[in-house]
Amino acid sequence: METIQNQKSGFYRQITKLVIPIVLQNLLSALVNSADVVMLRFVGQSAISAVSLAAQFASILFMVFYGLGTGATMLCAQYFGKKDFRAIELVEGIALRFSVIISVVFAVCALLIPDWMMRIYTHDPELVELGARYLRILSVAYLCWGLIEIYLSILRSIGRVAICTALNTIAFSLNIVLNAVFIFGWLGVPKMGVEGVAIATSISRLVELILVFLVSARSPNVKLRFSYMFKRSKALFGDFMKMSVPALANDVVWGLGFSMYSVIIGQFLGSDVVAANALVSVVHSYGTVLCFGVGSAGGILLGQLIGDNKLVEAEEGAKKLMKLTVITGAIGGLLILIVTPFVVRFAGFNEVATGYLRTMLLINTYYVMGAAVNTTLIAGVFRAGGDSKFGFWCDLIDMWGYGVPLGFLAAAVLKLPPMWVYFLLCTDEFVKWPWVFKRYRSRKWLKNITREDYEDPVPPEAA
Questions:
Q1: What's the burial of 253, exposed, middle or buried (CB within 10 Å: 0-12/13-18/19+)?
Q2: Which of 219, 291, 222 is nearest to 15 (CA)?
Q3: Mind listing the pLDDT tens digit for each residue in 252-294?
């Protein structure tokens, strides 16, 4: 009995050590997004709407990097469980190859065709023009982002989440300060509006990349080196593709689907709903900070346990993780409910937009729980054991077979009132619960995916 109790306390102690810095990091990220909205409120409602729509591309890019990082984390966390740093280097190099190419593609598009990118979300000339100015400058940040996210994912997989939080703290804090400088024209700098937000983000990303290289130089085991991109291991590349491609596809499918929700809102529901949704997204991100942090930390810890062949402990840990997720999801919903009156009062929107804002916040008080449970299981528990295909098929069917078609049907064909459309869009997380829970109980996700022989054979002439 005492041993079981010690195991429980040990799991909670370990997950707390991982959760605290991850939650702080997520809070800082949410704080930057909210700072953009708060400060742009003094520029105008159109500025908020334009940046919120243009930021959808950053959301898509984040999903891509998160998918690549997840694929690397699934493998690296398990290899760290058996203390195999050579395998970690090879996996990092594979992930970097993809992230660098994707960063360049997004940066070139943002630099050369930002107007076309904005027209995906809106035909409002003012919003297109403002968003294009924002995207063109943000191309610099896109170039840095891929390198940063992959390296930090590797550090998190080996439990070094504190240094990741420290780097993000510096970058996010700098971003907020520079936002104020460029938006309000402090220190003799001219007021730049939406362009100021983009400049602040790009500078902070550049600084963060420099700090990442400094951390890498002092790291004893895990480095950020371009040379890793040219190292080869067919076995690990096959494992990475097997794990990462479904994870990447899952996150892209989900991210694009969620982005299509913004298309529906921007094209059919009007600028008042767009403005309200910009604030709601910020509040929602605060509501999910704790539960998403628990899911991320739990995935890392479970991956290390599975890689060390402690499958029984991993299964018990997953059960504890689910209990924590439900509790933190409820806390997130309660938080949104508490802050709703203050957010509505602060927004300063017109009467119609204010009504939309109040209703959308109320819907998010329970929507948080759906997102919390699915994220913890699909992106945390399942991926800890290398099970990424299920999440892909689940979100593909849910988002593109249910959520997106339902949204277009409700908004474009049936022309339902805006809040009915928004309510229907927010049912997507709950629709997939039966299949997600069935997968969890099946234990098919509980697998050790490491291997002993992953080095490419040396050609006879090179031996």
A1: buried
A2: 291
A3: 788 788 878 988 988 888 888 888 888 898 888 888 888 888 8
Query: Which range among 60-64, 106-110, 170-174, 180-184 shows the weakest confidence by mean pLDDT?
Result: 60-64
* Cα 126 to Cα 112: distance, rounded to the nearest angstrom: 19
Nearest to 205 by CA among 143, 132, 114, 134: 143
- Nearest alpha-carbon partner for 331 in 371, 290, 370: 290
- For 125-137, what is the mean pLDDT? 87
The predicted-structure confidence for 410-428, as pLDDT tens digits, reads as follows 999 999 999 999 999 999 9
Neighbours of 16 (CB within 10 A): 12
CA 457 to chain centre: 37
Which value, in Å, is the radius of gyration of the alpha carbons in the chain?
22
Q: How far apart are CA 154 and CA 224, in angstroms?
A: 10
Q: Write down the residue that tokens 């009132």 correspond to.
A: 417
Alpha-carbon distance 345 to 348, whole Å? 6
Q: Among residues 155, 139, 135, which one has the least CA distance to residue 223?
A: 155
* Percent composition of the chain: helix, strand, coil (DSSP 3-state, to 5): 85, 0, 15
Consecutive H or E run containing 158: none
pLDDT score for 406: 96
Residue 246 and residue 391 in contact, taking contact as beta carbons nearer than 8 Å: yes
Tens digits of residue pLDDT in 247-260: 878 877 887 888 78
Do 445 and 381 meet the contact criterion of CB atoms below 8 Å apart? yes
